[in-house]
Amino acid sequence: MKRTLGVCYYPEHWSEEVWTEDARRMAEAGLTWVRIGEFAWSRLEPRPGTYAFGWLDRAIETLGAAGLKVVLGTPTATPPRWMLDRHPDMLALDAEGRVRKFGSRRHYCFSHEGYRRECARIVTRLAERYGRNRHVAAWQTDNEYGCHNTTLSYSAAARDAFRNWLRARYPGKGNDGDIEALNDAWGNVFWSMEYSDFDQIELPNLTVTEPNPSHVLDFRRFSSEQVVSFNRLQAEIIRAHSDAPIAHNYMGSITDFDHFDTGADLDIASWDSYPLGFLVDRVPATEGHRHAFERQGDPDFQAFHHDLYRRAGKGRWWVMEQQPGPVNWAPYNPAPLPGMVRLWTWEAFAHGAEAVCYFRWRQAPMAQEQMHAGLLRPDSVEAPGLAEAARVAEELREVPEVAACAAEVALVFDYTAAWAWEIQPHGKGLKYFDLAFEVYRAMRSLGLSIDILRPGDDLSGYKVICAPGLMHLSESDKAALTDSGATVVLGPRTGARDATMRIPLPLPPDIPGLDVTVAMVESLNPASPISLASGGSIMGYREVLEGAARVLERTADGTAAVVGSGKLVYVGGWLDATAWRRLIRNACVDAELATIDLPAGVRRRFAGDQCFWFNYSAEVHSVAGLGLPPVSVTRTVRCASV
Ligand code: GAL
Predict the structure, then answer these.
(1) By CB count within 10 A, which of 158, 221, 339, 606 is most buried?
(2) Distance of alpha carbon 36 from alpha carbon 367, whole angstroms
(3) Can you list the pairs that 173-179 forms with residues at least 24 positions away whose Cβ atoms lie under 8 Å?
(4) Is 317 close to ligand 1, i.e. is its CB under 6 Å away?
(5) Does domain 409-590 sit in CATH 3.40.50.880?
(6) pTM of the full structure
(7) Which one is catalytic: 144, 395, 408, 438?
């Protein structure tokens, strides 16, 4: 597959005179794609029902004439101010019941029917007008669903839609649901929370103490499905008028909605990769690690999302926004080391990205993102990111093909598990995303190339499958894992709750072929880790295991910590990096899969018969007979023994 580059551009921010020169310089830098339009609603429809497409026609024509292909965004993340006069109740409410006001972006509630109709209208207009435009070669729906904490809304529109959603989930006779079935499923007898009518049910916020976890889980499912149906509405309209592929640009570590489900309605998954912002903002890491990689970004965080969104895109995925220099929004915003923009880009290609687009073309001299670098400075002089992008374009001219990787190991990731952990973490800081990421990091530190899968995916061909923390696991998904033929690493909390968020009987994990029962769980202060006999520790969360399964790892005082039977391994706690790495290395030995112990900043990725080595660190590393310069990408022929 041929790999390409692109950039995000806002023609509406600049006078028309500069468009031609901008387009020429983009093409000259070797860029193929230009994404436009995703925030331009106030210029596309300045007054309700009065459209102004002329400027967009000319912008697309100018960009296309320079040889660029356009990704056209739908502008629904930024409803104009007049929209509020038509739909004063379309704004989301936060969990404290406060209105999330106009004046930035993403100011809408996914459940508001009136706003959905407005979205359908503008998307229809755009799709009718540009669906067959020869320069519009792809679409983007909205912008970063869920970003700025916008999936969950506690508005009246959300409440009404939730009640109807519950009626359908607990069906009764006719159109009304079976309220007794809901009471029973949620265990509402506890604290006299029983309802006699669906219209009595509120959203699970502003309760005196915590709301019922079953209530919250259903609200989380509902909220995710609202994002899915909002996105589907747009995708269906575009598809009726255009054959160009449709993408959405996801964000990093957002788990509030199921990206696999939204992905099912799209042709391409894409995501917005801001490695330095993320390192400060959302990577689970020590201060030492943050310091060591502050100008490079975490060596695994981008890769994790590349692999996750490759699955969400059913194999087709892009980076829609790539950090090109300092950003404006993290607590600290350093500049990347020279070479990092190129390294990030190649890492994406090595993981199978079809395209990498930089955000943004020119730094904005106005409004919220003035302190965010672009490929050009505000005065149109080249910023450092442009030369690196142009260098990758040059390299792609010589070697445009990167083969796909046939990964031998997989990590199973589940959004419902993320909600369940969030609802009942049991201890401070116990987040499913962090658990999955820490396991992924351990796998990658062993030089493994990983596929991320969702429960229910085809597991054939994998030698090792890690499925940590899957709190909800259907019987068929359990059977698929145990029958996969791979060495399967499960736990902690596998199957710890049923679909309605109750403790199942028999007690978890209840895995066929593995005689282990979780007799008790405890959460731990991070200052009180439990040492393991073979090194490393259990941190933050531990399970007391009973049963006849073989003990594979013990705590220093001799208690079972990890047990196994045949090819199944169950981990009874949240392990630290040392312990995860050992455990996964042992699983690979068991599966006859070669590993390599990589230093903290060095990672590798297989791509067909090629191997990419990435050195994120500021030091030279010598690995597998290779000298890897600081901040470098090295491509070798794959060697079977390492
Ligand atoms: C992304 C967003 C862009 C821009 C960028 C700044 O989250 O999609 O519009 O705001 O961040 O880093």
Answers:
(1) 158
(2) 18
(3) none
(4) no
(5) yes
(6) 0.98
(7) 144
Compute the average pLDDT of residues 260-274. Answer: 98
Ligand 1 centroid to Cα of residue 555, in Å, is 45
CB 616 within 8 A of CB 623: no
Locate the domains of the chain by residue range: 4-148+233-398, 156-216, 409-590, 602-637
Task: Decide which of 3.90.700.10, 3.20.20.80, 3.40.50.300, 3.40.190.10 is the CATH code for 4-148+233-398.
Answer: 3.20.20.80
Catalytic residue among 38, 45, 321, 553: 321
Question: Which amino acid makes up residue 522?
Answer: E
Residues 70-89 pLDDT 10s = 999 999 999 999 999 999 99
| Atom number in ligand 1 closest to CA 277 | 12
**Backbone phi and psi for residue 43, each to the nearest 5 degrees, phi listed first:** -95, -20
Handedness of CA 79, 121, 268, 66 (dihedral sign): negative
For residue 286, how many other CB atoms are within 10 A of its CB?
Answer: 9
- Indicate the DSSP class of residue 446: T
Q: Is the CB of 327 under 6 A from ligand 1?
A: yes
Confirm or reject: Cβ of 320 under 6 Å from ligand 1.
no
Using CA atoms, how far apart are residues 322 and 233, in angstroms rounded to an integer? 27
Q: How does pLDDT run across 144-182, given as a tens digit for each residue?
A: 999 999 999 999 999 999 999 999 999 998 778 999 999
Could you give the maximum distance between any two Cα atoms of the chain, in Å? 76
Ligand 1 center from residue 246 Cα (angstroms): 19
Expressed in angstroms and rounded, the spacing between residue 359 Cα and the centre of ligand 1 is 8
- C-alpha–C-alpha distance, residues 540 and 555, integer Å: 14
The identity of residue 12, as a single letter, is E
Atom of ligand 1 nearest to the CA of 327: 12
- Helices of type H across 170-313: 179-186, 213-241, 259-263, 275-281, 287-292, 301-312
Helices (H) and strands (E) in the chain, counts: 18, 25
Same CATH topology for 4-148+233-398 and 409-590: the answer is no
